[in-house]
Each structure stands twice: as structure tokens, then as C-alpha cells.
Amino acid sequence: MKPVPPALMVFCLLACLAGAPRPAAAQSPMPSSSPQGIRQSCPAPDGAPVVTSHFTDNAPKYNINLSSADLGHFHIDTKVSRAPHETFRTGGLTESAYSPTYNIQFLVRSDYTTGLSCLYINELDLDVVFSPVVYIASEFRPGSCRYTDTMRHERRHVDTTIITLKEYLPQLAEVARQATAANAVTGPFNSESIKDAQQQVSSNIRAMLAAELDTVDKVHFQRQQAIDTRQEYMRATRACPNEPLP
Questions:
Q1: Over 37-52, what HEC string results?
Q2: What is the pLDDT of residue 3?
């Protein structure tokens, strides 16, 4: 499986106190002699490459063992404005890690009389995997108001990533189809260079998918930033008046 550069963003819930978040493993080539012979050009492929796509939504992992101070050391991607007299404590955060990977099935046709080969993409399987990790400050006891409110906030981050990736999976799949069409046939080349040809095709496809993933990342970040607002943090601060902040 070849990974496209993974995205890891961290989004958190803060409480405000006044005054105080790939090379492809192509299948082994299958040489076959070409009855048409390979000279100046490669025979046309039998058909268009088959492209399939999947979204794997792994259940969130939960960590409630780190203190608010520990969580405060995490790098957080989203930003919030604050007044000079305000400090923020981290009550929870979510690591939203997703990594598109793809597997290519190649077909190689070789002409043993000329020593030339042609490389074809037979199939490409695209899998976008989402593996979130949710942290809740250890000071918030399970079942308490602050634990429940913080968990609700962090689940919004998880759900937003799921919605975004499902929305953009068809576009990633379309880019994968365009990439396989553009690289459907490679050659002729010296038969000793099959692995080099596979790596070049994989690199070409990876670059096209990475460019589309940049767009997904920007939309994803904008949607997550819309959750982590000053208004939301001030609401969370006042949500549980009977439970002091850590």
C-alpha cells in the first residue's frame, strides 16, 4: 500500500479563566509475451484501469489519563482570540489523523525477441483511513458535567472529519481515475527497468492525489476552526458552574 502524506490535525476544547491537535507496493509484474510484438510503441490496453475507493472509519480511541496541564503541551492547530487578562486551560482535544493509501495492480507485457516491455495499470484501490484519538483531561471524572460537555465537543470534531472525508472521497476517487488514465500505459522500455517504471507511475499518481488532498485538508481545517471559537470556549467555561476548572 502506498501512502499519500497523512494529515494530522489537533483540535481542542479550552476553558477560559479571567485573570489566570507513500511508495506503493505494486504486485509482482506478470510477464507475458505480446503476440503483436513490441517495437516503437506499446499495444493498446485491453480496457480502462479499474478504480475502487473505500472509507475506513475506525472507532475513536479515548485517553482520559492525561491532566489538563499535560494536554496543554500538545500542539493545537486551531486558534482562538483571547484578551490579555485571560488564560486558557485545555479540557480535551482530538487528534484527527487520516491517511489515504492506494494499491496498484500492474500488468507487464514483454517481447522477449526485442527485450522491451510495456507497463499497464490493471487496477487501483484507494482507501482513506480515519483513526481519531480523543483526550479528556483526567480532572474531569466520567459522568461529570465537564466530562460530558467536553466529550460532546470533541465528538463534533470527530463527526466533522467523517462528514468531510465522506464528502470528498468521490473527488479523490475521480482524481485517482484521471491519474490511472494518464499513466495507463508506460513504455516501451528495457525489460530490466520494470521496477523503475512501476516506481515512476506510482510517484505520478501519488503527486496527483496529494494535490487533491491539499484541498481536502484546507476545507477540513476551516470546518474544524468553525467549531473551536471563542464563543464556544466561553460557553464551555460557563457550562458547569458547580464544577471548578482544573
A1: CCCCCCCCCCCCCEEE
A2: 52
pLDDT at 15: 35
Report field, pTM of the whole predicted structure over 0.90: no
Instruction: Give the Cα separation of 205 and 213 in Å (integer).
Output: 12
pLDDT value, residue 117: 94
Tell me whether strands 2-3 and 185-190 are parallel, antiparallel or unpaired. unpaired
Residue 192 CA, chain-centre distance (Å), reads 35
Collect the ranges in the chain with pLDDT lower than 50: 4-35
Q: What is the DSSP string of the chain?
A: -EEPPPEEEEEEEEEEEET------PPPP---B-TT--SSSPPPPSSPPEEEEEEEEPPPEEE--S-HHHHTTS--SS-----TTEEEEEEEEEEEEEEEEEEEEEEEEEETTTTEEEEEEEEEEEEEEE--EEEE-TTS-TTSHHHHHHHHHHHHHHHHHHHHHHHHHHHHHHHHHHHHHHTSEEEEEEGGGHHHHHHHHHHHHHHHHHHHHHHHHHHHHHHHHTTS-HHHHHHHHHS-TTS---
Q: Domain extents for the chain?
A: 2-25+61-101+128-185+193-238
Torsion sign over Cα 9, 13, 15, 16? positive
